[in-house]
Batch of 2 targets.
Target 1
Amino acid sequence: MKAALRLLWSPGKLVASAACGSAKTLLGDWPAESFGGARKAMLVRKSTAGDFEAILAIVNDAARAYRGVIPADRWHEPYMSSAELAQEIADGIGFWAAEDEGRLLGVMGIQDKGDVALIRHAYVATAQQRKGIGAKLLRRVESLADKPILIGTWADAYWAIDFYRRNGFTVVSNEDKDRLLRRYWSIPARQIETSVVLADRRWVKDQDRAAAR
Ligand SMILES: CC(C)(COP(=O)(O)OP(=O)(O)OC[C@H]1O[C@@H](n2cnc3c(N)ncnc32)[C@H](O)[C@@H]1OP(=O)(O)O)[C@@H](O)C(=O)NCCC(=O)NCCS
């Protein structure tokens, strides 16, 4: 687990090699996990520099779900620019990818923040949603963290909240949400106002334990 975390948090290299146009893998000796039966199995694997454009395409395709749902002043197109994605990776987000027959179907990022890990930018291609891909990605990135996990999403993204709840996460109080978003995320005040935070069981248990003291 320790080695997993060390390898996971090396996204700077991904940006560096993407900038040089190299497709050098950051996987190292990471085993990819496969799912599926008779047809070629779907893999969930660490992203490589060569995945950069595919990650961007999936984010911007899946983020169409937000259009007309999240506050209009928060929507922009494309939802994420190439420069923003490069910055997110440079800031420590490691992306994992679901791949089927050489095609990326979904991506999920994880970012180490010291005492917690954040799940960032979870997106499954629109045509591939509700087939269990998000849950597989989530289980994989969760298995990499030996600490409590937090997730921030738009308060209006009811489907994402439902997805995380079904996968064991709990929406934290408004007060905790404001505190956590300020502490672990770098987002504008308006985004804090229009977001929710979900926490995993470990975080909830730690809070309960602290409150009982
Ligand atoms: C949220 C997301 C990553 C989940 O991935 P997924 O592969 O679709 O999820 P799974 O198939 O593992 O789980 C499906 C469950 O998620 C929820 N869900 C996902 N998409 C939904 C939708 N369009 N409407 C309602 N519920 C939805 C439901 O609980 C669903 O269960 P159901 O199909 O039995 O009702 C994906 O739907 C997505 O990319 N959505 C758009 C972008 C987004 O909201 N990202 C979250 C950013 S934090």
Target 2
Amino acid sequence: MRECFEVRDTDVGGRIGSLTVPSAGVTVETPALLPVINPNLDTISPRRLAEEFGAEILITNSYIIYGTDDVRERALEVGLHELLEFPGAIMTDSGSFQLAEYGEIDVTTEEILEFQRAIGSDIGTPVDIPTPPDVSRERAEDELETTQRRLEAAQDVETGDMLVNAPVQGSTYPDLRESAGRHADATDLDVFPVGAVVPLMNDYRYDDVVDVVAAAKRGLGADAPVHLFGAGHPMMFALGVAMGCDLFDSAAYALYARDDRYLTVSGTRQLEDLEYLPCPCPVCAEHSPDDLRSLPDDRRETELAAHNLHVTFAEIRRIKQAVRSGDLLELVEQRARAHPAMLDGYRALLDHAEQLERSDPVSKGAFFYTSHESARRPEVLRHHRRLERLSVPDSLFLTEGESARTDEFDESWRVEPPFGPFPRALSKSYPLTAEVPDRTDRAALEAAADGISRLVEANPKTEFTLGHRSWPATALERVPERVRVTDLNDG
Ligand SMILES: [Zn+2]
């Protein structure tokens, strides 16, 4: 068990956890957002982040501090917490981002970790190599090897009670991400950023982000706190949490504000295009778009940054509540409707339903079937697997209608799309209590047919009859041929 992290509640791959940060003397509740602070620019002061927005943790770049003489001297003299005036936990990045942008940096993992500890960082970072997407396999392997050597070097640095990040790289090669996760997990380092996903997000490749995270998670243990590094748009937090990410950092709130961009949970708007502000935060309650547009540049930037942060923190709270209530996937489905690329992300998430099913609670409040993607949720998969273990009589009527009134069959089971058949005794148990629309879609019927197929194949000696309500051919052709089929709507 990793001492610094405890998982308290789960839904799908998402969890509510506590990250104990000993040198700061604080415990951060996850999922958590780390606002990015540029030590040279102060859009919103760290004190305000803590007091007004409830930020428990932030991230700043130790390499910028290291390279700026007066800031470095002051950081060494008074420490990072006093320099930034922030009471919570402070994570520091190492300059890997600068390495990726400019090709080189003049500091080693040992030097930067010692420096991070000397200025009082609570979570330090080695100099890993953020390998971009789609590079050659050879380059991805070479750079991963370098990253892994540096993680090993980081273990030998005297870091006291500072926690240390172990970034997981491997470009867009799932097997490399998985083995990188396994290697990082085997070190004695503490927090696990999935690195170099920013280029994927900039290109709206949310499905590839999901595959990369799923691979890293297969390598990491379930007790590893995972940081989706560089993911700051609230639109994708629900998806990230559902995959099992615990930490997010946002530079977006400030960067977008600088360009008059207004964040929402369903995408980004330009301030100039807005006639109304669709948000209840104090900034939007007190200003009209015209008010904001007429502010001087620096005031407008601060107000927009404040709005962007309100939206971002509110989404984190909404997600935590969804994990508690067991309706995180319903929230992911809503967010997936905001943009076709988000829908791709959700569909990619469902490709990993088997992996997610392992951490998904067996019982929750309600299953709402809200899109045809719902037919591929982990609960459907789990029910289909359960069908193989149920005991069945010699002859069985599977029906969408009433029980058979004849003694033609030994038993009659209900068929409910998207789950398929189940004994009536189970009808009060999750997920069979699902709320499903009356106007069933083809995906739900096909999933129900797959359930029948699983049951039939597991019980070769039983005679099956299916009473369905005018299923389309695409569903009926998934039902094994030896099942007698009757349409209840005929006559
Ligand atoms: Zn607002």
